[in-house]
């Protein structure tokens, strides 16, 4: 605004024009500040969103790690129970060997052996074949005859009485093994969330039922056992042929060593599945000999071999799970070490001389 204009215009109008100019300038300044604040808010919102995404991702990773760790613990407990149940099954398979060897040493006909729970039949056969000792046969008291009869047979492993029947060592072993497999089925369903694990649960329930009728109703126990081994065989075949193929491992982000470990574990699991199939198919075939009443000493030896396949399978599963747990623990330790190293390096960078800002003094020096 030049001098001539100021001289020709009244002073109060000049003041008004100055105030208008100042107001316009202030409005521009306020507008620029609002724009700056909006940009800052946008940056803060974007930063907060990124932080939320990072935290959410960390939470998802932590949840996934926790679920994986829990599943591995359940798998370990399941495999330990499988080993225990298979070991009891092996011991169970040895139990009737003494009886068949004893009956063979006395040349007892198989039709007599097959009626071992019929005391009257045994008495008649012993009497007809002159197997009752003379001093026992001529004894005046029934106690002598009863004691000889009770001690002339192999020990059945009588443990305690229950009402009108009794419980034997064989029943306890059988029940305990079946209960282990029942728990294995429950835990497998928890880990895999797949219907095939329930097949083991049902198979184990038939095994439990079979163990309860071993003494009271042997025929019913054999039928329940046959149903049980058929279900176990179905599960073993499905596990080998179908289920393992569905368990594909995403190896895109894996290092070579980890990939090799997983591939070796998969091969070991396949080997365990093969032993499981052999053992269950062996039991399935042997169950038919029991159903038709032609189970003999050679079949008892075959039952031991089948039970041994179960035990080998369970040991392989336990070994694979143990390796998987150690690998998972090593990966978590590596991630923790990487995090600690990142935090340490970040703190050192934050306080390093290269990152400290310089301030220029009024005289131009820093």
TrEMBL record:
Alphabetical UniProt keywords: Membrane, Transmembrane, Transmembrane helix
Compositional bias segments (type: Acidic residues): 34-45
Residues passing through the membrane, by range: 76-94, 171-190, 195-215, 221-243, 268-289, 301-320
Superkingdom to which the source organism belongs: Eukaryota
Protein name: Uncharacterized protein
Polar residues composition-biased segments: 342-352
Region (Disordered): 31-64, 336-366
């Amino acid at each position: 605004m030049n001098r001539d204009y100021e001289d020709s215009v009244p002073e109060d109008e000049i003041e008004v024009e100055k105030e208008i100019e100042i107001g316009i300038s202030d409005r521009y300044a306020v507008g620029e500040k609002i724009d700056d604040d909006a940009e800052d808010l946008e940056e803060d919102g974007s930063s907060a969103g990124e932080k939320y995404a990072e935290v959410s991702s960390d939470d998802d990773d932590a949840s996934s790690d926790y679920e994986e760790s829990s599943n591995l613990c359940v798998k370990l407990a399941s495999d330990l129970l499988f080993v225990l149940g298979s070991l009891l099954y092996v011991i169970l398979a040895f139990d009737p060997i003494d009886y068949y060897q004893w009956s063979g040493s006395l040349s007892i006909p198989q039709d007599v052996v097959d009626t071992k729970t019929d005391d009257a039949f045994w008495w008649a056969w012993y009497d007809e074949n002159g197997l009752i000792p003379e001093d026992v046969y001529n004894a005046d008291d029934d106690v002598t005859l009863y004691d000889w009869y009770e001690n002339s047979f192999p020990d059945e492993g009588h443990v305690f009485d229950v009402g009108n029947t009794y419980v034997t060592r064989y029943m306890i072993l059988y029940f305990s093994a079946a209960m282990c497999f029942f728990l294995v089925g429950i835990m497998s369903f928890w880990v895999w969330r797949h219907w095939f694990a329930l097949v083991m649960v049902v198979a184990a329930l038939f095994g439990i039922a079979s163990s309860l009728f071993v003494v009271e109703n042997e025929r019913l126990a054999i039928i329940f056992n046959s149903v049980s081994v058929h279900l176990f065989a179905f599960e073993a075949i499905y596990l080998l042929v179908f289920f393992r193929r569905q368990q594909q491992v995403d190896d895109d982000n894996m290092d070579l060593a980890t990939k090799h470990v997983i591939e070796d574990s998969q091969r070991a699991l396949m080997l365990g599945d093969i032993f499981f199939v052999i053992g269950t198919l062996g039991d399935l075939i042997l169950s038919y000999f029991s159903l038709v009443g032609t189970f003999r000493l050679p079949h008892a030896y075959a039952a031991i071999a089948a039970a041994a396949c179960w035990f080998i399978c369970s040991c392989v599963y336990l070994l694979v799970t143990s390796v998987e747990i150690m690998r998972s623990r090593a990966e978590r330790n590596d991630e923790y070490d990487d995090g600690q190293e990142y935090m340490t390096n970040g703190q050192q960078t934050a306080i390093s001389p290269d990152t400290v800002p310089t301030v220029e003094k009024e005289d131009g020096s820093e």
